[in-house]
UniProtKB/TrEMBL annotation, chains A, B:
<comment type="similarity">
    <text>Belongs to the metallo-dependent hydrolases superfamily. Adenosine and AMP deaminases family. ADGF subfamily.</text>
</comment>
<dbReference type="Pfam" id="PF00962">
    <property type="entry name" value="A_deaminase"/>
</dbReference>
<dbReference type="InterPro" id="IPR001365">
    <property type="entry name" value="A_deaminase_dom"/>
</dbReference>
<keyword id="KW-0964">Secreted</keyword>
<dbReference type="GO" id="GO:0006154">
    <property type="term" value="P:adenosine catabolic process"/>
</dbReference>
<keyword id="KW-0378">Hydrolase</keyword>
<dbReference type="GO" id="GO:0005615">
    <property type="term" value="C:extracellular space"/>
</dbReference>
<dbReference type="GO" id="GO:0046103">
    <property type="term" value="P:inosine biosynthetic process"/>
</dbReference>
<keyword id="KW-0732">Signal</keyword>
<feature type="domain" description="Adenosine deaminase">
    <location>
        <begin position="202"/>
        <end position="495"/>
    </location>
</feature>
<dbReference type="GO" id="GO:0004000">
    <property type="term" value="F:adenosine deaminase activity"/>
</dbReference>
<dbReference type="InterPro" id="IPR006330">
    <property type="entry name" value="Ado/ade_deaminase"/>
</dbReference>
<dbReference type="GO" id="GO:0046872">
    <property type="term" value="F:metal ion binding"/>
</dbReference>
<protein>
    <recommendedName>
        <fullName>adenosine deaminase</fullName>
        <ecNumber>3.5.4.4</ecNumber>
    </recommendedName>
</protein>
<keyword id="KW-0479">Metal-binding</keyword>
<dbReference type="InterPro" id="IPR006331">
    <property type="entry name" value="ADGF"/>
</dbReference>
<dbReference type="InterPro" id="IPR032466">
    <property type="entry name" value="Metal_Hydrolase"/>
</dbReference>
Length: 516, 516
């Protein structure tokens, strides 16, 4: 019964195919053009693994494809692969925190446009404390303007004094870099830099949290907020994103009210009208909001929150896409703590004939059997539509099966996971486990303003660069799935998918055409 | 159909149990004593996560359970959990490279006992090159002794001159630390230190490879080799290990011949006799050799290797446990390159009625669809009895299923994987994925002399510390499985398991007794 080598090779091919049979890019037969484009991209990836990633890069001792994002970002942007992916139609952003979606340079630029926006510090800024003292931003009512001309860096500055942002910038001590020094300081406080990215998990979460505190002071100013939202839509569409479901906190201290939702709606209409004028209507299907509150509130507060969410859903049915509770899972309360209230929310929805799906963060952790890991059980039992992160899902065979069978999509945020130290590089990321097990996945940037992974191109790049299995066709499936698993109504979803397919076809054709 | 909270909790418990139903520690009902010991250990783990891992430790900025081994080693050794585990009966070491199993201090001490052992360097040693110049060790025939008294650190030293190790040590320049400086230098060349452990993957493999080159010069000296083997057996048994299958290279350049096998056999008999005299017969069932060659040889050379392996199996049927090809998978030849020859080997075994199972290294990689990752397909198709490392196995749903159904055990080497940069800490290790999917697992130290994880206690500690699911009973299952998946004959295996069960019972009783 000896096996000859040809028979062995037949068995081998069959086994590999069987092993990959649950992958979304394995079930569809690609068109000839898709197959050619995929091959071109694979060859380019292999070539650049040597020509770009194998070359010397100043300040990057051991570059490799899929490496730490903040350190490798400049190298990524030099690749042809990145340029190709930047043109790819990417479907939906399903997981992004609205407060973290517009780049910090632009946010600061916006702040300078409004005399109402002020800044103060808790200490006089000096060369030695500049990296530790954070700016506090705040819009002041006109009656409160005192128009001080004192610099934050002047010895006469009284800590706590609100100075107009523009003044603070212009008077910033030349010894600390002058206006550009101010920009560097302010932007540094709203973003994570490469050296911080390499620090321990605990410290990176502290820095991450503080970036929100700083930028919130600027963006929670209604006139600026509108331009902020517009910029988010504009840059997303530029990156090939055609639909968005953004999370935003409606917790009382966040000061988010109906006015903010109305603004979101209005900006969306304006943006769509602008696109339509340019003949680009199909490039943007729309944007919705996932109502979120925080995992430190009480059960009573949660009852209030979902009642508020229901009221908003009744008023803005086309805007409220779902409900979530957010915040670092390793340190805040687990979902099980809130389960009673969430069951009541579910019952109330049924009574009212409403559909506000849960779209829970769960399993954003390295824990094995910790409360954060166990959140996956509750998310699924409570009937979550999708799972935010689901990083630890791969440890749970039954839950993996459930996600596959019930079509629960995982919103995977590769770069976020790496920067927040769940994985050291894309090579260690469990994404291939999900894909190979047929669990639906969409890629998301999470907090691009802080991480510098604006749009979806960077996350798509990291995933493509770190695999020899996933190719362009595989990325296409992820994009397609992001739209399929959105909360869009049937007709809208069909329109979104049809528009995407049309653009995808053009995209793969353009790869083949430019390679002839 | 509203669900009340009690019903929800029932569903939740059922789901968690279902999710964990494939775990080995889930199928057996523990005895009352086991359950109590397990609880004690869980409470101790939780307490020490705060009292030890939450405390300040000099030179360790952010300690945490399951952290980088080389940096956290001293903290681990301070814990009560470590002390308890050191007494646990651990079953078999199924994955260790014989050249890397005795600690470097002891190897150097042995070297000093033999006038034949010499050392030389390629450059005069100075304070500035001490960390870069490696010692070369070599036993010389007596006729070649020149007995030079020149120090390696003396300006008159001619690079390449062989100096007796003892002389070299005694004459080591006091400015470089004198004899202790020599020890530090020599031991440093045979081990990996914490700062090297944190360097990039590429560099750590270079250092790792060089440690073998250095120590081989000492241990390939037959009289010393015997004492080396004895020490390996002795320390393993002290650590609670009762059976060993060690890999050793029989490639020509390694100079391993029948004499070395005979020595291995003789030392084993001596060691068993010594234990028997002490009334400790059941603490050591024995040791076997997995014949290995290297993944850079040609197909013709592989044909020669397995013919050699067959000849040895015929002469030492009780010693030859299996066959493997070793070396870094990411850079050397894949198994598929050797498949034709390996199929011939398999056929020949059938003709001769022999059983030399393949026990292949496979998937020791972060690659997704790379040749190293694909080695898993070939290992399984070629009928491997176990898999060495199998780090990337979790990506392959069909192969996971096959391993579970065909009972193919994975020899997981947690600390090795972390030091060689497959994972950044135990928290990122895919081990829970294997266990939760019912894939049989045994823990192994791989190369403890280089990594400092002598025995099995350190690897067991890292696994226990990094999980809230795995407890003492879970570790017991891993130990039991290591014996079950050994190549021992039926009767021997039954004896080994019975002896282990007896010790395990005493062990859990002692935990409960000492905690009253």
């Amino acid at each position: 019964m000896a096996l000859n080598f040809a028979e062995y090779m037949e068995q081998r091919t069959a086994l590999i195919n069987h092993d990959r049979s649950l992958r979304p890019d394995h079930s569809r037969t690609p068109t000839e053009v898709e197959a050619r484009a995929d091959k071109i991209v694979r060859e380019l990836r292999a070539a650049e693994a040597v020509s770009v990633w194998g070359a010397e890069h100043e300040g990057v001792p051991h570059p490799f494809p899929g490496m730490e994002f903040l350190t490798g970002r400049n190298i990524i942007m030099k690749t042809e692969l990145f340029k190709i992916l930047s043109k790819m139609p990417k479907g939906a952003i399903l997981h992004a925190h609205l407060d973290a979606t517009v780049n910090a340079e632009y946010v600061l630029k916006l702040a300078l446009d409004y005399p109402a926006l002020h800044v103060c510090t808790t200490e006089l800024l000096t060369a030695s404390n500049l990296n530790n003292i954070l700016p506090q931003f705040k819009p002041l009512a006109q009656a409160m303007f005192t128009n001080p001309t004192v610099a934050l860096t002047d010895t006469s500055y009284a800590p706590g004094t609100w100075v107009p942002v523009k003044t603070a910038r212009e008077t910033f001590d030349p010894a600390l870099g002058g206006p550009e020094g101010f920009d560097k300081w302010a932007i540094g406080a709203m973003t994570i830099n490469p050296s911080e990215g390499e620090s321990a998990a605990r410290r990176i979460w502290e820095k991450f949290t503080s970036t929100f505190t700083v930028s919130t002071g600027i963006i929670r100013f209604l006139p600026l907020w509108k331009r902020y939202i517009y910029e988010f839509f504009r840059t997303s569409v530029e990156d090939g994103v055609s639909y968005i479901e953004a999370r935003i906190n409606f917790h009382l201290i966040m000061l988010i009210t109906k006015e903010w939702l109305k603004a979101f709606d209005q900006v969306q209409q304006d943006f769509k009208a602008d696109l339509k004028r340019q003949g680009r209507r199909d490039e943007f299907i729309g944007a919705r909001i996932i109502y979120t509150t925080l995992r430190f509130i009480t059960l009573d507060e949660l009852d209030l929150a979902w009642k508020d969410c229901i009221a908003l859903k009744l008023e803005f049915p086309h805007l409220i896409a779902g409900f979530d509770l957010v915040g670092p899972e390793n340190t805040l309360k687990p979902l099980i703590y809130y389960a009673e209230s969430l069951l009541r929310f579910r019952d109330r929805q049924k009574e009212m004939g409403l559909d506000i799906p849960f779209i829970f963060h769960a399993g954003e952790t390295l824990g094995d059997g910790t409360e954060a890991d166990d959140n996956l059980y509750d998310a699924i039992l409570l009937g979550t539509l999708r799972i935010g992160h689901g990083f630890s899902l791969v440890k749970h065979p039954k839950l993996m099966e459930t996600c596959r069978e019930k079509n629960i999509l995982i919103e995977v945020c590769p770069i976020s996971n790496e920067i927040l130290r769940l994985t050291s590089s894309m090579l260690m990321h469990p994404l291939p486990v999900l894909i190979n097990n047929g669990v639906p996945v969409a890629l998301s940037p999470d907090d691009p303003a802080m991480f510098g992974n604006m749009g979806l191109t960077f996350d798509f790049y990291q995933v493509l660069a770190a695999s020899e299995v996933t190719g362009l066709i595989g990325l296409g499936e992820l994009a397609r799935d992001s739209l399929k698993h959105s909360t869009l109504e049937v007709a809208e979803k069909e329109r979104a998918l049809a528009a995407w397919e049309k653009r995808w076809k053009k995209f793969v054709e353009s790869i083949v055409a430019s390679n002839v």
